Amino acid sequence: MKYKRMPIEMEAPEGYGYDNIDCNLSESSFTDQRLSDLGISLEDIVLFYGDHKGKPALRRMIADEINISGEDVLVTPGAAAALFIVATSMLDKGDHAVIAKSNYATNIETPRAIGATISYLQMNFDNGYQLDLDALEKMIIPNTKLVSLTYPHNPTGVLIDEDTLHKIIAIIEKKKTFLLMDETYRDMSFVKPLPVAATLSKRVISISSMSKSYGLPGIRIGWIVCRNQELMDTFLAAKEQIFISNSVVDEEIAFRYLINKEKLFAPVKQMILSNFTLLKNFMEQQQVLEWVEPQGGCVCFPRIKKEIAIDTRNFHEVLLNKYSTYVGRGHWFEEDGRYMRIGYSWDKTEKLAKGLSNILKAIEDSAG
Fold first, then answer.
1. Considering the entire predicted model, what is its pTM?
2. C-alpha closest to that of 198 among 106, 68, 335
3. Which secondary-structure segment (H or E) carries 342?
4. Domains contained in the chain, CATH given
């Protein structure tokens, strides 16, 4: 593996320093939660090696919600670890993968580090980031080991409908390859959530986590769902060689949160929808940014309109250094500097409103 640091990590706000940012619109998750706010006490936890597959009661809880067996769930140290396990288990140097782009950086960089040959299924602003099913089918060749998609999509927030999901899976089964479906934002869908894709076929691997929707990135709990037991045995072997087991502290927090998910998540979703309304009103009232309106998640990916002459590098520097506002830069997703990922549910609502206003000010300062 030839590891290379990704811009999204090198320029992460935690590295820059949260205290140095007034309006942080770069985050891709809900506001970080406190244990005290969740009513969780951990005084009686035994600090042992946990079940290598993950806490059995936690796996059953995840499985019961989508009507599968707990044996079809592998709990991992976050979704990033799950993605790494899947990519390194299924791809060797020279193998072929089809990856939707733009995408969460890890979904691209890990196959690249392995040395896999990658075909990018381009998702373009100008056609509303629609998925081209004909192009997908043509890209899958005999040595295609994996197709990687993310819905609701990061960084755009777009979503496919259930009919399209079934068509994608039909292509995967016809071509005898496997689908990796990153579903981290599924609970944040503004419309009826898609089925967990792995419940529809043994050729699908679904990934999710506690980080984005629930605001619990610090506990590092994610999971793999797959009904192919041969693959799951391989994923378990990979996990054991890298991690052995998860933190039992993290698993306990996740378990207790999910016991009370209905109560704890309701205000979270309400806040996301409220902030989205603020964001949508902002987008409708200004003249310099354009977007494809999200259907889920807590991020969007607008761009500065093409007719505006602007030094985008200067724009980002002005935005950060003059207005103390941070957004996810386009090059984090291998797009140009006119694009920016705006996370609209991590910072306080008043900071979101201020940050959005600062974006317009920085564009005005940087326009030629």
1. 0.94
2. 68
3. strand 340-343
4. 7-28+262-366 (3.90.1150.10), 47-259 (3.40.640.10)
